[in-house]
Amino acid sequence: MRRAAVLTGGSRGIGLATARLFAAGGYEVISLSRSVPPDTGIGHIATDIIDLASVEAAGRALAQRATDWDQIVLVHNAALHRHDTVADLDAAGFLQVLTANLAAPQALNHALVPVMGAGSSILYIGSTLAEKAVAGAASYVASKHGMIGLMRVTCQDMAGRGIHTACICPGFTDTEMLRAHVGDAVDAITSMVAAGRLVEPDEIGRLVMVCAENPALNGAVLHANLGQIER
């Protein structure tokens, strides 16, 4: 069985942790990212998710390679997260986030679904904010809510094709993106986690692998946040 895992943003954070787990599991792994992954066992196609032409070119390159694979796991991991509110978010800025977080995943779906064999999967990395909202993250919250909708449509449209899907929604995960977003508030957000710590990227990666290899989870939204304390 020739299996491949294709991930956006596989050069750091959750994407890198997930890529390493798939590589250890015998998958050929390819990261679509601007940066080259630090591991030589992870392939790389230079891709910028804000630029649809870049994403579509990566999709075409992958589709040509797909004849080598019996199953493909497509993981939509990379995302754009900005500080903005409904009051200050202009249309151009909103469109850029929607491009990165929704249009880019769909561009890859469009390229790869025709070449995916039975047993393949399309997995979306959502967020706790895919089903709730906080102030100051308008574009991100809206796009992640949309991602759950895209996953649910994937489930319906792939019925009978042997391709399953799920949306994994991490809570506060110890990544560069989180620390850049919250700044000095890391201790404050950790106090909002029932377990008293941040989620580790490889904990999310292991859940992604579970979803990839278990079609019973088709259409599922899975929250992985160590228990969040609502305030």
From TrEMBL:
What protein name applies here? SDR family NAD(P)-dependent oxidoreductase
Cross-referenced InterPro entries, in alphabetical order?
NAD(P)-bd_dom_sf, Sc_DH/Rdtase_CS, SDR, SDR_fam
Q: Which family does it belong to?
A: Belongs to the short-chain dehydrogenases/reductases (SDR) family.
